Amino acid sequence: MGRGSVMGRTYAGLPRWLYVSAAFGALLVILPLFALTLRLDWSRFFELITSESSVAALQLSLQTSVASTVVCVLLGVPLAMVLARDRFAGQALLRSVVLLPLVLPPVVGGIALLYTFGRRGLLGPAMDVLGVQIAFSTIAVVLAQTFVALPFLVVSLEGTLRTVGHRYELVAATLGARPGTVVWRVTLPLVMPGLASAAVLSFARALGEFGATITFAGSLQGVTRTLPLEIYLQRVTDPDAAIALSLVLVVVAVVVTVVTARIAERGAR
Amino acid sequence: MSLTFEARLAQRQFDVELSMGPGERVAVLGPNGAGKSTLLGLLAGTLRADAGSAALDDRLLFDLGAGRRRWLAPHARGVALLAQDALLFPHLTVLDNVAFGPRVAGATKQQAAATAERWLREVGVSDLAARRPGQLSGGQAQRVAIARALATGPRLLLLDEPMAALDVSVAPLLRRVLRRLLVDQATIIVTHDLLDAVLLADRVVVLEQGRVAEAGPTDEVLRHPRTRFTARLAGLNLVRGSFADGAVHDASGLVVQGTRADPGAPSEGEPAAAVFAPSGVSIFTDPQQGSPRNNLSVTIAEIEPLGDLVRVRGDDHHGHLLAADVTPLSVAELDLYPGREVTYSIKAAGVTIYPL
Fold it and tell me: Where is the signal peptide, in residue numbers (chain A) (predicted)?
């Protein structure tokens, strides 16, 4: 540690007080996770996470998160390409608006979604005519998750697209490739590592989504009650179950982080 | 293939007209920012002109201006671009890189692979077909890039300083490959290197500040440069002015005696250029008298080694930086240093005068 560090071969040149601050920062993240595992009733762990309501929540969470990740990729990849490659009036504004859910409280997003797709929402009458009812359904869960996860994919992929640059695409065009061919055969393969880690990030964000979901989709077991909602409810009735399920989410988060780091590492090579 | 091209792009102060005959190879020279890359971009379709039109044979590349909005996308032009960096697709093997063009043009996988193999053989890197671009040296990658560009059978090939990023030991070999492959291939090559122009092009076009400053057959332009840029490139001193009494008189009163070039000697009062080689200049530290020599007093601006010789650049107080090549021994004997006043002496017989 510090000036005499033998682990790193290069001189870090950092003052000691900086390491103290850094240690507190790390503890702020590590300590609560540690406390969580301390309070866990290991003997009932398996029983707790396999209860009917837990399994339903876990299943719903995985299904909706996968679905919203797919939607994020389908909508976010084109959006990132348009933002990264073309130049048009209002582009900066569009970028800011698309990224808004990153900084917006999710519950505000949920209310906004309600007033768009809800019964009395902007598109409510149109959906009434079509006989579709989205609010408080599983589709609403997917929509809410997509709403909050999309910016993660767009911002991360746009960065990758800019790093890779436009030049390979121009070369492909002068070799006779149509714009569509360029996207499939050049752009997408080149950004694939970045796209994969962006998709994993959106998946993780969707999995953890709470505020927008409970506002827009409600909390109906097996239909809209995802794992975070289940944990929140169990916290009152059965704290042990809440802790066990929390740990499941922690494990998923750790896996996601490791996988993303691996992909980024491979992409960098 | 024949090309007609005229385009204007205000943002880059570009206004150029150019035409090429079938199979002709044109070298585009010019200082940085002269518009060389703009020219290539407009031809390849990566840039759009404000106004102008261009056609490759019967294929209209663009026709833009008041009321005219025709513009062909890059992929439909038959114009291949080879840049300084090879820009091989990193996710494809060497073979698949070269097969890319034929493949997107509709060839089957086998046909495209056969074409790619043939071109890899042409550029001498057949053995690298299975490698990834990351495993190639700069010279190898550029050979593959040449194969990839030619495998599309381009009507027009654009080369943007293809040797600039390469090691000096690799460039000559690649230049030989290009010299062999570009016979009858309509090519525009942008370069800073005189060798490229001499070996790879039939004709040179010199751009300066977005305009064509000079154009003509390569050897003619290099022998009788009209711009300082070209003169410097050709390693010659150039004084422009008007012809009178067997000499070129420039606007500031500088007079350079010389011999009129045959054919096409200038007549009295006509704009003319006087050109002389740095090797024909003798340096004296005391004032010189007498014809038929030109004696120009200059202030030495810079002294730099040039192989076995030393190149001395002197400011003639008329806006020219004139070069003289002398031996290191003379530099020592005459005690030459920047800032010293000396006399450049040039035999009139060593100065060629021709009309502009």
Answer: none
Containing structural domain, residue B311:
235-356
Q: How many domains does chain B have?
A: 2
**Nearest residue of B to residue A186 by CA position?**
B89
The DSSP element (H or E) to which A37 belongs, if any, is helix A16-39
- Closest residue in A to B158 (Cα) is A174
For residues B270 and B169, state if they share a domain: no
| Interface residues on A facing B, Cβ-Cβ cutoff 8 A | 167-168, 170-179, 181, 185-186, 189-190, 192
User: Is the separation of the CB atoms in B122 and B98 below 8 Å?
Assistant: no
Report yes or no on B228 lying in a domain. Answer: no
DSSP single-letter state for residue B31: -
State the nearest Cα–Cα gap between B273 and chain A, in angstroms: 41
CB atoms within 10 A of CB A44: 12
Residue among A176, A189, A190 minimizing CB distance to B75: A176
**Long-range pairs for B98-103: beta carbons < 8 A, 24 or more residues apart:** B98/B144, B98/B147, B98/B148, B98/B151, B99/B151, B100/A172, B100/A175, B100/A177, B100/A185, B100/B148, B101/A175, B101/A176, B101/B148, B101/B149, B101/B151, B101/B152, B102/B151, B102/B152
Tell me if chain A has a CB within 8 Å of the CB of B71: no
CA–CA gap between residue A211 and residue B32 (Å, rounded): 57
Residues B195 and B290 in one domain: no
Write down the ipTM of this complex. Answer: 0.80
- Window B:212-251, CB contacts with A under 8 Å: none
**pTM for the complete prediction?**
0.80
Residue in B closest to A167 by C-alpha: B87
DSSP-derived secondary structure letter, B270: -
A68 belongs to a structural domain: yes
Q: What is the pLDDT along chain B (356 residues), one digit of tens a residue?
A: 689 999 999 988 999 999 998 889 999 998 888 899 999 999 999 999 999 999 998 899 999 988 888 999 999 999 999 988 999 999 999 999 999 999 999 999 999 999 999 999 999 999 999 999 999 998 999 999 999 999 999 999 999 998 887 888 888 888 889 999 998 899 999 988 888 888 899 999 999 999 998 899 988 888 888 888 888 888 888 888 889 888 899 888 888 888 887 766 788 888 888 889 898 899 998 877 665 688 888 999 999 998 899 999 999 888 888 999 999 999 999 999 999 999 999 988 888 888 88
Place of tokens 């000691």: A16
